[in-house]
Amino acid sequence: MPFKSKAQRRKFAQFLVEGKIKPETYEEWNRETGREVLPERARPKKKRTATERRRKKKRAKPQSP
Fold first, then answer.
1. Could you tell me if 21 and 15 are in contact, meaning their C-beta atoms sit under 8 angstroms apart?
2. How many domains in the chain?
3. Is the per-residue pLDDT at 36 higher than 80?
4. By CB distance 3.0 to 4.6 Å, which of 12, 33, 47, 56 could disulfide with 3?
5. Quick check: is 60 in a domain?
6. What gap in Å lies between CA 4 and CA 12, rounded to an integer?
7. Closest of 4, 1, 10, 15 to residue 41, by C-alpha
8. What is the average pLDDT across 4-30?
9. Helix (H, G, I), strand (E, B) or coil at 5
10. 52 pLDDT above the threshold of 90
11. Residue 32, domain extent
């Protein structure tokens, strides 16, 4: 199964260094990916909805002494 993103490739390289996966596994995935240009992340970040933006802007009222 080829890598889907640069982040995934970095994570697998980290696992390889830590000994959590075999070098053969990493090389197989790397070979299947080839020289393909990968996106930084597999999925774009979720955009906030208008409601979420409003909630963030809303501030608590200052308390009176």
1. yes
2. 1
3. yes
4. 33
5. no
6. 12
7. 4
8. 95
9. coil
10. no
11. 1-36
DSSP conformation letters of 31-47? HHHTTPPPPSSSSPPPP
Structure-token pair, residue 54: 């409003």
**29, part of any domain:** yes
- Residue 63 placed within a domain: no
| Residue 3 neighbours by CB distance under 10 Å | 20
In whole angstroms, what is the distance from residue 7 CA to residue 48 CA?
23
Which tokens belong to 49?
A: 């909805």
Q: At what angle do helices 23-33 and 6-18 cross, to 10 degrees?
A: 160
Whether the Cβ atoms of residue 6 and residue 39 lie closer than 8 Å to each other: yes
**Measured in whole angstroms, how far is the alpha carbon of residue 61 from the centre of its chain?**
37
* Global model pTM greater than 0.70: no
